[in-house]
Amino acid sequence: MQAWLCENPVGVDALTWKELPTPEPQAGQVRIAIKAASLNFPDLLIVQNKYQMKPPLPFVPGSEYAGVVEAVGEGVTHLKVGQNVACLSGTGGFGTHTLAPAALCFPLPDGFGHVDAAAFIMIYATSYHALIDRAALKAGETVLILGAAGGVGTAAIQIAKAAGARVIAAASTEEKCALCKAEGAAEVINYSVHTPTGGLRDEIKRQTGGKGPDVIYDPVGGDFAEPAFRSIAWRGRYLVVGFASGPIPSLPLNLALLKGASIVGVFWGDYARREPKANAADMATLAQWYATGKVKPVIDRTLPMSELKTAYAVMGSRSVKGKLVLVN
Ligand SMILES: NC(=O)c1ccc[n+]([C@@H]2O[C@H](COP(=O)([O-])OP(=O)(O)OC[C@H]3O[C@@H](n4cnc5c(N)ncnc54)[C@H](OP(=O)(O)O)[C@@H]3O)[C@@H](O)[C@H]2O)c1
Predict the structure, then answer these.
(1) Could you tell me which of 250, 325, 293 has the C-alpha nearest to residue 43?
(2) pLDDT in tens, the chain (328 residues)
(3) What is the dihedral of CA 167, 168, 172, 174, to 10 degrees?
(4) CA-CA distance, 193 to 277, in Å (whole number)?
(5) Is the shortest distance between the CB of 279 and ligand 1 below 6 Å?
(6) How far is the CA of 252 from the centre of ligand 1 (A)?
(7) Overall pTM surpassing 0.90 (yes/no)
(8) Pocket of ligand 1 contains residue 245 by CB under 6 Å
(9) Ligand 1 pocket residue status of 301, Cβ below 6 Å
(10) Is there an atom of ligand 1 within 6 Å of 39 CB?
(11) Ligand 1 atom 43: the closest Cα is on which residue?
(12) CATH class of the region 2-120+297-327
């Protein structure tokens, strides 16, 4: 097998494509021939030693992937050789093969292609948990989604639409806003034009008839959080999803009091660990929604696995719409 190896976590440049012994699965593991692997935000951090999870060195990065089961270890009963699976195991995806814990593998129904499957679990499970579980989004409510053309953002647009909500999508370019419209947003805000200090609040107010959004989905943080939170509706729910812009914002708590609003933390990874049954039920609903066309990952482009460094560079340039996927 071959894989991108991280022997020294000082950044993407230090990754090397290496020939490695093909491993045999131990008890509870399967070996997967990887067909597709997507890039997620933590993949950028983990190779710089900046992610909360620090795998022992050397390791193969690649948190999320899909492929075909090639061998099963002792005690694995729900998977068999030849089965198509998707897996989010944190590492191992950027190569031709990997060992994965069988418990983390989702068997793929017929018609669920490897590229879509590799780009599915993280963004849809996060956005479903956020909007449906944490915010209890109801049909007819209005949702403002920041960073709406990114991975979790595009999933959030589709899920909010499927729930019958009205979506206002906010992103940094006209091109990204156009994609959000195509994905089902009723309205868009280009926040490079309506900036956090120059009109963002007025535009949110205008697009919600003065009421404000019932739910705000924020994977961006930084300067956007406070003007967005100041715009929220009475009894609004502000979903803290991530800080893609870098700085972790502070919010004056009097704003929560004045709006009777909730600041709601979203940590999908821990939710999946602490509440596995609830997460499995979410995944089952999402698989059904995929089968009926309610949700479908937006794939910006696919690149050969050998072009991982190009993929990282594209992701770092803030130009990706939806997801980047590497294929073997
Ligand atoms: N809480 C959880 O359980 C959970 C789960 C998954 C992901 N996350 C977090 O959610 C965030 C988004 O993840 P993602 O997979 O959607 O990432 P992504 O595909 O890269 O999208 C992030 C979006 O953030 C916006 N952005 C604003 N400033 C940026 C900057 N300086 N650099 C890069 N992007 C910037 C970009 O949109 P514009 O250019 O339009 O502003 C971009 O589309 C990350 O912080 C990630 O760690 C959290």
Answers:
(1) 325
(2) 999 999 999 999 999 999 999 999 999 999 999 999 999 989 999 999 999 889 999 999 999 999 999 999 999 999 999 999 999 999 999 999 999 999 999 999 999 999 999 999 999 999 999 999 999 999 999 999 999 999 999 999 999 999 999 999 999 999 999 999 999 999 999 999 999 999 999 999 999 999 999 999 999 999 999 999 999 999 999 999 999 998 999 999 999 999 999 999 999 999 999 999 999 999 999 999 999 999 999 999 999 999 999 999 999 899 999 999 999 9
(3) 90
(4) 43
(5) no
(6) 23
(7) yes
(8) yes
(9) no
(10) no
(11) 150
(12) alpha beta
Query: What pairing do the DSSP bridges indicate for beta strands 29-38 and 64-72?
Result: antiparallel
Residue with tokens 């995929």: 290
CA of 103 to the centre of ligand 1 (A): 28
Tokens encoding 282: 């979410």
Q: Which fold has domain 123-269?
A: Rossmann fold (3.40.50)
Domain ranges of the chain: 2-120+297-327, 123-269
Altogether, the residues listed in the chain come to a count of 328
9 lines ligand 1 (CB under 6 A): no
Q: Does the beta carbon of 172 sit less than 6 angstroms from any atom of ligand 1?
A: yes
User: Cα(196)–Cα(261) distance, rounded to whole angstroms?
Assistant: 20
* CA 289 vs CA 158, 268, 282: distances in Å: 10, 19, 10
DSSP string, 207-219: HTTTS--SEEEES
The radius of gyration computed from the CA coordinates of the chain, to the nearest angstrom, equals: 20
Spacing, Cα 171 to ligand 1 middle (Å)? 11
Expressed in angstroms and rounded, the spacing between residue 221 Cα and the centre of ligand 1 is 9
- The sign of the dihedral angle between the CA atoms of 98, 32, 65, 137 is negative
Q: What single-letter amino acid sits at 280?
A: A
Amino acid at 129: H
Q: Is the CB of 318 under 6 A from ligand 1?
A: yes
The pair of three-digit structure tokens given for residue 283, joined into one six-digit string: 């995944």
pLDDT at 52: 86
